[in-house]
Amino acid sequence: ESYCKLRSVWERFRRREDQSLLLWLYECWCAGAHEDVWLDSSEAQQLGRLSQDAAIDWGLGRRPGRHSLWARLVGSVRAAYTAERLLRHRDAWSTRLEGVQYLTELSMADILFGNAQNSQCLDDPDRACCTWDTWQALTRSAPPLYARALSSIAWNGNLRVLKLKAFIWDYREKPSSCVQTRPREQAACSDDPCSICHEELGRSSCELECGHEFHRECIRTWLLEHSSTCPICREHAVLPADIPARNSPQPYKARRCKRSGI
Question: What residue ranges carry the coiled-coil annotation (predicted)?
């Protein structure tokens, strides 16, 4: 039973070798590392190369007692790295996916090592606010299209990173060939990627009630195995029992369940 549990944890949270540590850490939180995975030090030591980083993997089992996987990950990352070593500042990003990823990295570094206000968001990174340093790093590295769009936003200390990520992802400058088309047709005119697998959406897309699109199988797996929320805006979504066939011309649309207190 213990082996099956640890194998499941390893498969669910293992980091891809080409994935930045900060993005991986955020995805672990999204996947429930803070809620439903609790390990004692002996179990944590048996996770092997979970992070693909020797220093972090070695540190997972150092803390005695029983703790959430999230607490062990955070403690190990903090012990092994500084913000300067962990965060790779970008001179430029060119796509909305790169922009959202960079903003996530900046925010996670701030939560782990920086701003006192954001350090209180350790158990819920989606509550973090965009600090002035994060805002400057994001806007200075933005391509002209997004730099113009971001200039329309008046920065303040209460600007949520989550809302800013949704703004970047949703922003469009209407192509001339798509001006008179419906939203789904307009999306089809571009090479928009699925934000889960990062490949072009194509025809097998699925639109959540919040308006964000993904591959059917990608969002199905995400909602069933990782989180019950949209990966972009974090609105709660419910996966219907019946999923249209892969080649069905009808878009699959999930129902939204409003988050309590919002």
Answer: none
Give one DSSP letter per residue of 2-48, joined into a string: HHHHHHHHHHHHPPPTTS-HHHHHHHHHHTTTTTS-EEEHHHHHTT-
Tell whether the model's pLDDT for residue 148 goes beyond 70: yes
Global confidence as pTM: 0.72
CA separation, residue 174 to residues 160, 180, 182, 207 (Å): 26, 10, 11, 20
Classify residue 62: in a domain, yes or no.
yes
- Which domain range does residue 248 map to? 183-256
Quickly state the pLDDT bin for 54 (edges 50, 70, 90): very high
Number of domains forming the structure of the chain:
3
